[in-house]
Amino acid sequence: MKTVRITLMGFGAVGQGVAKTILSKNEYLKKQGIDLRVVGITDSKGSDINIDGIDLKAVISRKKETGTVATGNMSALDIIRNVDHEIMVDVTPTNIENGEPGLGNMLSAFGAGRHVVTSNKGPLAMRFSELKEAAEDNGLFFRYEATVAGAVPIFNLVHEALAGNTVTGIEGILNGTCNYILTRMAEERMPYELVLKEAQELGIAETDPAYDVEGIDAALKLVIIANSIFGTGATYHDVDVTGITKITPEALELASQNNSVIKLVCEAVDGKLRVAPRLVPKRHPLAVGGTLNVASIQTDLAGRITISGKGAGSIETASSILSDIIYIARHL
Ligand SMILES: NC(=O)c1ccc[n+]([C@@H]2O[C@H](COP(=O)([O-])OP(=O)(O)OC[C@H]3O[C@@H](n4cnc5c(N)ncnc54)[C@H](OP(=O)(O)O)[C@@H]3O)[C@@H](O)[C@H]2O)c1
Predict the structure, then answer these.
(1) In this predicted model, what pLDDT tens digit does every residue of 110-138 receive, in sequence order?
(2) Which helix (H) or strand (E) is 291 found in, with range?
C-alpha cells in the first residue's frame, strides 16, 4: 500500500467535494493500492493540520457549523513548505487580477518539491509557461484537468488517449451559465434579462454575471487549452471575445427557422483564439443544451473526437481532481 499525502488549499464547494469524494472512494482507493490522506486544509480564516491524516467527516461538519476548518492559523505557504506531503491541491478562488493566492501556492509547492493538482483557472490563464517550467525544473507533476469543463476530461483525452495525434483545432462550449441562458431563451422564447434572473435564482448565474455572460470565463479556459495543447504561450489578451448579452429572442427564432441554435463557441484554430456567439446546426455535436459543456477536437489521425458532460458542480469537479491525484499516485 502506497501512502499519498495531500493538502487542500481552499475548502469551498470544490474543496469539500474533494473531501467527500475521498471519503466515499476510500475502499476503491485502497483496492488500487493507494492510502490517500489529507494532512492539511486551509480556508480564508485558518487551517487544520494532522500529519497522520485529518478526520474528513469532522472537518466537513466543523466547516458547516462554524464556517471554518480552522483549528490553528498556520498559513497556506507555511503548510506547503513545512508539512510533509506529496501533492498540493489548490482549490482557492479564481483571481484574474494577479492569480493569488493560487499562483503563490503553486510556485511555493513546486519549490518545496510537491506535485500540484488544481481547479483554479487564474494562475494558469496568467502564467502557464512559468508554472509548467517550475514543475519540469523540479521533476514534478502539474495537473489541472478540473480547470476547464469541470468533469469533462479534455486534457487527459488529448495528452493520454490521443497521444501521437496532432491536434489541428478545438471548438467547445465551455461556460455552462451562458449555455443555460441561450438554451432557455431559445426554448421558451424569453428575453435575455428574464432568463438571466431565472438563472441567478437557480444559482446557475452569479449575482454579478459579467464574468460569465461577457465571455471572460470561457476565454480563460480557451487560453488554458491553447497553452496546454498548442503550447502557444497565450494570455487572455490574445482572445477575441464577444459575450452573449446582445443576443435577442428574435435572433434565436431566426436561427431556429434555419434548423440552428446560437451557442457561445470557443475556438482555437490556425493559431487564432476566439470566443463568440455562433450559429450551430441543431444536429451538430456542439449543440448541447442546458448547463452542459462540450469539446470537439480535430486531430490528424483520429479525425474529430467530441466529448461532453458537466462543466461544474462540487462532486463533478472533484472527479477530475481525484483522477489527477490518482494519476500522480500511480507514478510515484
Ligand atoms: N464550483 C465549481 O463547479 C468549479 C468548477 C471548476 C473549477 N472551479 C474553480 O475551482 C476553484 C474553487 O471553486 P469553489 O467553487 O470551490 O470556490 P469557493 O466555494 O468560493 O471556495 C473557495 C475556497 O477558497 C478559500 N479561500 C479564499 N481565499 C483564500 C485564501 N487567501 N487562502 C486560503 N483559502 C482561501 C475560501 O475560504 P472560505 O471558505 O473561508 O470563504 C473557500 O474555502 C475556483 O478557482 C473555481 O474557479 C470551480
Answers:
(1) 999 999 999 999 999 999 999 999 999 99
(2) none
